[in-house]
Amino acid sequence: MRWWRGTSAKRNRDLDKEVQSHIEMAVEDRIDHGAPGSIPRGKGTGVEMPGWAWMSRLAGDMRYALRQLSNSRGFAATAILTLALAIGANSAIFTLVHAILLRELPFKEPSRVFSVENASAVGLGFDARLENYTASFNAAARSFKTIQEAAMYSSSGVNADLAAGIAQRLKATETSAEFLKVLGVTPDLGRGFMPEEDVPGKDHVVLISDRLWRDALHADPAILGKTVKINGFDFAIVGVLPPHMDFPAHTDLWTPTIFDEHTSLREAGAFFTSVIVRGRENVPADTIRAEFRSRVAPGQEQNGRARTSSENEKPVLTPIAAELTKSIRSSLLMLTAAVSFVLLIACVNVACLFLVRTAERRNEFAVRAALGAGRGRLIQQQLVESTFVALAGGALGVFIARSVLHLLYVFRPAALNSFQRPAIDTAVLAFTAAIAIFTGLTFGIVPAWLAGHEDPAGVLKSGVWRTSARGSRLRKVLVAAEMGIAFVLLVGAGLLLRTLANMDRVPLGYNVKGILSFSVSLHGEPYVSKDASTPAVGIFYSTLLDRLAHIPGVNATAAVSSLPLDTRADMLLPVTAGSANQTPVAASPRFASSGYFGTMGIPFIAGRDFSLHDNGASPKVVIVTRDLAEKLWPGQSPIGRQMHCLWYCKPAPTVVGVVSSNRRFGPRGEVLPEYYMPYTQQDWEFMTFVLRAQGNPAMLIPSVRRAVAAVDSTQPIYDIETMQQRLDDNESLVRFELFALGVFAFLAVLLVSIGLYGVISYTVTQRRREIGLRIALGAQRTTILIAIVREGALIALAGTVLGLGSSLALMKLLTAVLFGVTAHDSITLGAASMLFLAIAIFASYLPAHRAASIDPALTLRSE
């Protein structure tokens, strides 16, 4: 009894508050329309001054919205959670976009800085035949009227001894003297490079990163002038670059360009240079591009070479911001579109919830309108409520964004490693707040408009609330639209899934299972003397291979100069069979140990492997890939024939074996002609070692480090990883896109299922009397169930048709990503259509079953 009295008292208090709230709003509405505030307002309430009326109304609407939402906790929780998931996903992707695509570059006027592809076509590329490349490059740069400065750069790993006597692996970038001027960067300490330091012999100066200065050199203020060893050569520190200078990404050291092969910082002396230019002030980018393209007109020459007119070899200028983000830009833009679709679906779902809520509150709106509330006031109150829900969803979405961002970085592609990991900052919070407010207004405007256009007389006369046919049709249209959007996401995820499956089926020509790889680059004493390699290089390799072979669990060991799936640039050199009239074939040279092909699982087609007898005292030998053999000796056996090439082939080596071709750049990469020579016949300071293990190859890492240290503890090892990790990194961008798009597609399908279920359930609720009457008149329950399921299927069919049309148009954007499947793949489109039909049947069955189970006697009695 006491419990009943407490409950009754609480109900009375809630009713008093509700009535008082309606009275207060009615008074404010009458005042707005110029009528006297004659309705009692309650204790302590007065009439506000007209200037503050809008603030008073807004505060009242906010209090009323909070009260209404607190009384409908289930509705509020559903709407807020739906929006939080969508807004959180959008905030997470925006965090990446803001940190990578929208970031302000740490350069002076970055819009004037361009990266130049195919710069050699206009005299700005490296040419080994030039005696003075620096002078040629600078002369060509000065001849341009539209650019202010030009510079080249090339990055590579180096062995750097900073002070402790133990070298560590760092990233170095060789640059020309104008490099910092092009970027507009000034050292925090010291100076940049001088023009005369581009000359070999005067080039042993270095700039260091702020990160290296603080972490490894303890922020020594007297660091200028001190010496560090880089690849065995002494370099004097002349400057420390500012913290924001990280171009190219993760560079620790910057040195002037060195052009003689043996002292080059580039591994093995391979020259792969990139060029950047700064346009003159107030010169449009199109004008700069036009001058570059005009320099390659047919028939003209530069440096004694005919210029090319091929479109593929003409210079291409790309803004530096786009160049730095080209590896990840398309993926981020695709994910931005995907999460925008998810947000749109969430808006539609919540709009449907608000439409239902508006229908249920028709009596309330009619009473308020009868008491004098204008349409504008009713619309405003509804928009305040919807904005409250959206802001609450946005606040929760910030926490969800943190989790989503963490999850995305767990599956991040290798391309993201070039950028600092972003965090949710003020800009992201501002974006979240803005998108929450926009979302609240978007999904609230239609229900608010319907609430403001009710006929109070008709509603009050009926005595019960009924949803209008217009509102019912609108909900079905909205659900069909969101199903169309979700269909697009599902098709995109399906195409990426098929792409990944196709990539996994491509034969690589080698076996990545069970292999551990690591690299060593030998520099300094005793491996280099007077700028030339010594016999110590070969002794190091043979000794290390022997130690690696004796590690427990190792089945095979080998070494090669360039491993498949290596991310470093590759050389292509002209190769011929010795015939004077034969067109040279571009092929990549490799240096390997005996047993390399067996360790990597590369099958022999003809001939033999390298042996211990293939040394510096014996005739030179070479093993070629099948595609190179077919191009040099079509229809003939290459075994015993001599091959001629530009470098490393004097005297011409004899072909002793033919191996299968391989896709060294992964499933998407082309098959390149290759030729292998034994490292025992050619000095080569950089090698990658491979070990085939019985079990998990990663378990061998500690033993490998001990083996290398036992041979020479001063030589650092790097890039130590399994071949499976290399392959995963190669495919990481597609996997990342598939994971992210798959998650968003799943979320979209889940929201669509809930939306369809809600619409059908509400339809059944509204038609209870009709269904009960039909059953009472003899309608079969199976007929009722089929009719309700058919209604859901028709909505899904409309959404599928809309989604098919949209997919045919939008999936063309994925063409560059797809592999082995077209953007209009019928299997994927058919599977998505069948899945949506199944979802529609499942989402409709439960309310349909409930409708078929209606007791007509109880239903008609309640009516």
Structural write-up:
- With 863 residues, this protein is an alpha+beta fold.
- The protein folds into four domains: 2-56; 110-324, no CATH class; 479-502 and 730-863, no CATH class; 523-714, no CATH class.
- Helices cover 48% and strands 15% of the residues.
- It contains 24 helices and 25 strands.
- Strands 19-22-20-23-18-17-21 form a seven-stranded mixed beta sheet, with helices on one face. It has a six-stranded mixed β-barrel with strand order 2-3-8-5-7-6.
- A hairpin with a 2-residue loop joins β6 (227-230) and β7 (233-240).
- The longest helix is centred in the middle third of the chain and has 37 residues, at 469-505.
- The protein is globular and about 105 Å long.
- The model is unreliable at 1-8, 35-51, 299-309 and 463-467 (pLDDT under 50).
